[in-house]
Amino acid sequence: MGLKGLIVALFQLDKDWTTRIVMAMLVMGVIWGLLGVIDSLMVRIQETAWGTLGTLVMTSQEYYGGVTLHAERDLFGFAQQVIYALFIYFTIKLLNLQPRAKWLLNISFIILNISMMFMEGPIVAYPVFNDNYFSATDWYYISPMGIPGYSQYVVSPLFFIGWLLLDIFTYTGGIWIVYHYYIASKSLKEKLPVPLVYFLMVTLMFMIGYSGVTAADVWDLLAYAGVVGLNA
Length: 232
Fold this sequence. Notes:
Layout: H1 3-11, H2 17-53, H3 60-94, H4 102-118, E1 123-124, E2 153-154, H5 157-185, H6 194-224
Antiparallel strand pairs: 1-2
C-alpha cells in the first residue's frame, strides 16, 4: 500500500461524506491526544526528577508549557473532538438522515484544529522565576495576566484567539447536530431511542457549559485591545 492508499484508507476517502468527516475528526483527535500525552510525559519527567534526584531537567517555561498543553490537547483536541465525531456518526446513521449543511461542519472541523495550533504555553516576561504561571493564562476571577507583582509569565493574544475558535467550534458543531435532530423530529413517529436522547442532551450541555467561557474569552480579547477594563 502506497502513501496515497494509506491516506485513502486512514481517512476513508472512498466512503460517504459522513464517514469521511467523522474519520477526519477521529484521526485528528488521536493526533492531538498523542501530542498531549507527550506534554504530560514532560510534566511527569520533571516531577519525577525533582522528587527523586532534586534536579530540574527542564526549564520552568517548558514545564508549565507541558502542564497547559497536555490539558488543552487531551481535553479539547482529543476528547471533545472524538465525542462530537461519535455523536455525529450515530446521529446520522441511527436517524437514517441525509446530512445537510455539510459546509458548516467542514468549517467547524477546520476551526477546531486551528484553535489547537493557537494554544500555547507561557512566555517568560521577566527574568526572575516566580511560581505563579496560572495567573498568567487567565484573566478570569481577578487573576490578571502578565502584570508585574502578579505574574512573571504572559501569553500572547493567540492563546485567547485559540480559545475563541474552540468556542466557535463547540457552537457551530453543536448547532449542526441539534439541527439534524430537528429535521428528524418532523418525521419521527415514536420517541427517540435512549442513546440518541443522551447524544442530544450532552451536545446541549456542551453549548450551555461553554456560555461562560465564551463570554470570558470575548472579554479577554476586548480587554487586551483596551476596549473594556481588565476587571471592570
